Amino acid sequence: MTVAPPAMPFRPSGAQLGLIAANFLMWGGFFAVIPLVTVHFVEGLAWTAASVGLILGLRQLTQQGLTVFGGAWADRIGPKPLILAGCVLRTLGFAGMAYSETFATLLLAALLAGVGGGLFDAPKNAAITAVTRPEHRTRMYSLASMSGNLGMVSGPLLGAALLPVGFRTAGLVAASAYLVALVVLALTLPHVRPESPRAGGLGGLATAAQDVRFRRFTLVLIGYFLLSTQINVAVTLKAIALAGTTATAPLYGLSAGLSVVLQYPLLRLVERYVPTRIALVLAVLMVATALGLMAFAQTFPALLACVALYSLGTMIVYPTQQALTARLAPPELLGSYFGFSAISLGVGGAVGSLLGGALVDMGARLSFPALPWLTLFAVGLLTALGLKWALREVPSRHAPQPEVSAL
């Protein structure tokens, strides 16, 4: 009888610490300026909300669309050059926003920032996977998510503190965060050598799309991302209805703060006792249940209790989804698979933004305020069942996986 060697302890390497730090800087820089765009251009310069919304929507669409190809390109040349190039473009984009005074210049700067995000998004996930042993990936994704949530908490606080000084200053500080991230990753991240010089590209995306198991997984996850968007749409609208516009600060603070404090220990506990596939299904059910319970929340504290449950579910979903994506992807096509998986976020986020607001309006018209929450609960239930079906043949996390070489 052969006894399996004990698992090596997880001690983050310089490359992993660099990725964690860069993720904090990227999320912090993003949330230091993006929430202020509407405040500055609509309230400060009297632009229409529709024009600013159009610009921000096109930025999001550009980033999500290019993320698919950014991942595939990373399999050709390695993720590091694309991440660094994306940081440069995001720096220029945010600096351009800071100096924008016309619709055309703000649109150009926003699109440049979107292109930058499309270049570094999937390659960053591929780089995390490449520099982390398979048995440690869920923890590493959890740490990366925690650093991002910490950025989401500190970014708006920094932006709000800088707003009295001027939007231009806030934009330049946000741009500099990506410049610092570039330096950190240039110094710490190795250049991961592609397994095959012909890997990736459109062929890599085609392989991911033709992988029936992975395609099912990606398409079913659209349902989850439809739910996860509601913190910015239906949940925010209900919070404002219960407690006024000042409700957004405690709402987002609770959601991100819980992730910062609890995500890593919670993932350690889940990883020890619950298989990854089951953990993902249960987490989606938790998110769906939290949204369903919001139908009965008649006070702001009751809504915050539902948000806490919602946040516990979302903090489990991200690292388990990333770990399963890495497990399903061939080592030479990590970027392509992470890029293809962005389709679920792009489609789910877009549909969720439209559906959440439409359901709230429809519930008000029909005098049935529970309509959006019961509908979202049903979507979550169907998504959980779909994930159970889509993941039924996923290999165990203990299955042997080849290592990825790096220079």
UniProtKB/TrEMBL annotation:
Residues 16-398 form the Major facilitator superfamily (MFS) profile domain. Its main location: membrane. It is found in: Cell membrane. GO terms for molecular function: transmembrane transporter activity. SUPFAM superfamilies: MFS general substrate transporter (SSF103473). Gene3D superfamilies: MFS general substrate transporter like domains (1.20.1250.20). This is Putative Major Facilitator Superfamily protein. The lineage of its organism: Bacteria, Thermotogati, Deinococcota, Deinococci, Deinococcales.
